[in-house]
Amino acid sequence: MSLDLHPTDLGAPLDPLPGHSSRGRLERVLRRGEFAVTAELNPPDSANPQDVYDRAAVFDGWVDGINAVDASGANCHMSSVGICALLTRMGYAPIMQIACRDKNRIAIQGDVLGASAMGVQNILCLTGDGVQAGDQPGAKPVFDLDCMSLLETVRTMRDEAKFLSGRKLTTPPNVFLGAAINPFAPPYDFRPYRLAKKIAAGAQFVQSQYCFDVPMFRDYMAKVRDLGLHEKCFILVGVGPLASAKTARWIRSNVPGIHIPDSIIARLEGAQDQKREGKQLCIDIINEVKEIEGVSGIHVMAYRQEEYVAEIVHESGVLKGRKPWKHEPNPTDATVSERLEEIRQGRQENQQQMADIAASKPH
Amino acid sequence: MPETSAPSPAGDKPKIGNAGAAKKAATGAYVPGDVSPNRRVQRRYSIRLWSIRHSRLLEWFYARFAQAFLLLHPVWKAIGYSRVEAPVTFVEKRVKGMLFDCRMCGQCILSSTGMSCPMNCPKQLRNGPCGGVRANGNCEVEPDMPCVWVKAWEGSRNMVRGDAILNVQRPVNQSLRETSSWLRVTAEAAARRQASEGAAP
To answer: What burial class does residue A139 get, using C-beta atoms within 10 Å of its C-beta: 0-12 exposed, 13-18 middle, 19+ buried?
Structure first.
């Protein structure tokens, strides 16, 4: 039986532990000093809950948290609150992303309470991409809060049990607070200080933007260690497979904030099977970054290649044999599926013949 | 679907992504001349950039200016803060509008942002650059505009109290828009001074 499981109800929050701000698995894994793995769920463009369950099922047993994105890249999808509601029903540990682009402070604080009530234990505070990046560039950008004031708002709600306005909450949302970092965009000298600011505002863990430039990340981490920030928050490095050199080029010029060095594109171009090479590249990067002091985990963003996450995590060996939580709907379901498997492998039973035998040979 | 139907305009359709808006402009949709295809703002940043380059001078000047304003506190009080609000806002809007492209958020933090007005950021970020800054230091939303926060960092490095950029700023109080920040700062400073004087004896 896993340590990170509620003994009677799979979906229920774990028992509170001293020094922990949430009752979720991700915080426990990180605070135990284990190398955490999180992944990003590709949000469906549908109203079918099964789509969410199917997309989460590919991560089963490989990740400690699943990011429910909030209209990433300003493209419209199922909302992060909705995805989180479905995931918590099944006992998954979602990390709810909140982007400041689409909601003002009134809506955001309401969503935080609602999400926490549904069992969401982790919240990731983001500024959000500009609306120009998405499928509806004519939308009104809200940006009422920014990621920093959002962090501070949620922290105030959690630690002081009150809204931004000062009104009291009867039950505060006990969430583990996260933020995003991008060490790969200018102004490079300011980036470590910005992390310090985020920690001051309440960030307990951070997930980075795609890391394709390991030397650059190493420099960043050196500065972060100088400032002592790696001891104040858990740093998860964003990684992901590139499908081909063409995709890499497209991402570089079209998706804001992703830095892909020429050497990476050259390596992909030189490969026979670019998709395979992209995956190998991701594993190589994981193996490099996991050795950097201050790195507490990885965040795998395998957009439209989610089925490779398990393989990538397995082959990089970052879990060191640890088995993250796996969705097991019902102990009896396991028996049923075992029996079904037996039947599938064994002799086909002729129902008609069996009925005849039973009819002609009564007791 | 018959083959003879008009060729699908798939090629002309605006593509999703950062280049989408520019692509849409290229299809012939009306776009005002010489502006960013994404968002209409002014296209000249030279005075704003001058102010950032001279952030230290402006910091020095503002300190004197704030002192003078505080000395005038009895005058403001005699006339009434609410009555001077309109003319002072008129002047402040024009002066700061010229120097910083001020957006009159009413809670000026220029001293904490290297004299680069954060309300010019398309995301109106008040706590630092987003992750979308282009490699050349330009804005994600407006490709031709230098990132407000890249400039803010440069400006803050010239300033004596530049490290104020590391403080976490509170969210904007939207109800203070179009009000005078100078008068508010003066009134608050006067109140603080009075409180300390009242406490001292």
So the answer is: middle
**Domain for residue A359, yes or no?**
no
Query: Residue A204: inside a domain, yes or no?
Result: yes
Interface-testing mutation among B23, B168, B169, with chain A (most A C-beta atoms within 10 A): B168
- Judge: A132–B166 Cβ closer than 8 Å, yes or no: no
Structure-model confidence comparison of residues A332 and B164, the more confident one: B164
Q: pLDDT above 90 covers what percent of chain A?
A: 74
Q: How far apart are CA A127 and CA A150, in angstroms?
A: 9
Contact B18/A254, CB-based, under 8 Å? yes
The H-or-E segment that residue A20 falls in is none
CA distance A232 to B189: 35
CATH number of residue A91's parent domain = 3.20.20.220
Measuring CA to CA, which residue among A312, A308, A260 is closest to residue A283? A312
State yes or no: pLDDT of B30 exceeds 60.
no
**CA angle A49-A15-A201, nearest 5°?**
80
Look at residue B140 in the predicted model and tell me its pLDDT: 86
Interface of B with A (CB under 8 A): 16-21, 24, 38-39, 122-135, 137, 140-141, 147, 149-150, 153-154, 165-166, 168-172, 174
Looking at residue A348, its pLDDT comes to 66
- Any residues with CB less than 8 A from the CB of A290 and at least 6 apart, and which? A35, A298, A316, A318
ipTM attached to this prediction: 0.84
Question: Shortest CA distance to A267 belongs to which of A238, A289, A283, A244?
Answer: A244
Query: Per the structure, how many domains does chain A have?
Result: 1
Q: Identify which has the larger pLDDT, B51 or B201.
A: B51
pLDDT of residue A176: 96
Q: For residue range A157-193, list pLDDT tens digits in order.
A: 999 999 999 999 999 999 999 999 999 999 999 999 9
Arithmetic mean of pLDDT, A112-127: 95
CA angle B88, B94, B97 (to 5 degrees): 125
Instruction: Please report whether residue A251 resides in a domain.
Output: yes
d(CA A1, nearest CA chain B) in Å: 41
Bridge partners of residue A98, in order along the sequence: A125
Residue A12 lies inside a defined structural domain of this protein: no
Which burial class, exposed, middle or buried, applies to B199 when counting CB atoms under 10 A from its CB (0-12, 13-18, 19+)? exposed
Q: For residue A130, which residues of chain B lie inside 8 Å, CB to CB? A: 38, 122-123, 132, 140-141
